[in-house]
Specification:
4-stranded mixed β-sheet; alpha/beta
């Protein structure tokens, strides 16, 4: 989604406490310090302007009490249990984590429903087991900010990709160390999640996912042959499009991300595009790293140029996707665990 910034209305207990602390610091801060605090709040997904100005932690509590903001894990209105944020699994360990946000119920209101239903049918036909899936799911093993402890075996590869995405200006380790108190502690949203026993992500990529930065991820990660998407198609699409800096939300981040700061002088930036490429890359490699099945990706090109928004997918679009999945043998890579 590319709506206003990265604004949220649901936060983990840990993030909520950080927001409240910053709000109180802001009340007595000078103009320069207020600007820095505002950037940190936006980096946590909280926009004061979504509600009103002159904000304090007391006002934040009022929003919790009225239900306008949800603190995940709370016992009741305004009461939050003192529990730590969930621990991320290490590489090689089987992912058995709970969701940090309640999954959406499966329904046909999502634009990807025809494709998700088709994939479920293929799974049931091949394995003889019901395929349950949900849209727009958040899992706590898919963080916005990677850590070495979770990706020890692939950390050098992740560093290499990141280094390319920031024009070799910084290393990932240096940014994580310098901005350890400002890192985005939230988690990525998954387009479609296929639950046990299948346990894999399905992502649909529209045209904005293809550009010189996505190409950099494809060219600098050597294990993409083991992943379930049309690599050559993605490479060609990414080669054909160059995104230039802009003030639009598709190109420029509206909240501070220490990993992808503004790269140029002036208002025009492309750090949102770089961030998107990196997060797509992490969605590709993370499942394998925590013992899950490979992510399946389809592009708008596969569905005859349609993205499912203004005009939904018709039977011809779905059939084209079905034929690609079957011809590539992606379902053969799925391991069913007892």
């Amino acid at each position: 989604m590319e709506s206003k910034g990265m604004s949220n209305n649901a936060f983990t207990y840990s993030i909520a406490m950080q927001i409240k602390k910053l709000l109180d610091e802001r009340l007595s801060a000078d103009r320069i310090r207020k600007k820095s605090i505002r950037a940190k709040l936006r980096g946590l997904g909280f926009y004061i302007s979504d509600y009103f100005n002159g904000f304090s932690s007391h006002d934040f509590d009022k929003l919790v009490e009225t239900g306008k903001i949800t603190v995940i894990g709370q016992c009741g209105a305004g009461q939050v249990p003192p529990i730590p944020p969930p621990q991320l699994p290490k590489v090689g360990g089987e992912a058995k984590s709970v969701d940090t946000k309640q999954d959406h119920e499966t329904n046909d209101g999502n634009k990807l429903f025809p494709l998700a239903k088709m994939i479920a049918g293929l799974l049931e036909e091949k394995f003889g087991i019901a395929a349950n899936y949900k849209f727009e799911v958040i899992k706590n093993w898919l963080p916005n900010t990677p850590t070495r402890s979770q990706f020890e075996e692939r950390w050098k590869d992740i560093e290499t990709v990141y280094y390319q995405l920031v024009d070799r200006k910084w290393t990932l380790e240096s940014r994580l160390k310098e901005f350890k108190d400002d890192l985005n502690a939230n988690f990525q949203k998954i387009d479609v999640w296929y639950a046990e026993p299948y346990q894999f992500i399905f992502e649909f990529d529209e045209c904005q996912h293809f550009n010189q930065f996505r190409l950099a991820t494809l060219e600098h990660y050597p294990y993409y042959s083991k992943h379930s998407f049309d690599f050559e198609q993605y490479r060609v699409l990414s080669t054909q499009k160059v995104v230039n800096p802009s003030t639009f939300g598709f190109q420029k981040l509206r909240s501070f991300d220490p990993l992808f700061p503004e790269m140029y002088d002036g208002e025009k930036q492309d750090n949102r595009v770089r961030q998107r490429a990196f997060r797509d890359f992490m969605k590709d490699i993370t499942p394998n790293s925590v013992g899950l099945n490979p992510t399946i990706r389809l592009s708008y090109k596969t569905t005859n140029g349609k993205n499912g928004k203004k005009v939904g997918f018709n039977s011809s679009d779905v059939e084209a996707a079905r034929q690609l999945i079957q011809s590539k043998g992606w379902l053969d890579r799925i391991v069913i665990k007892d």
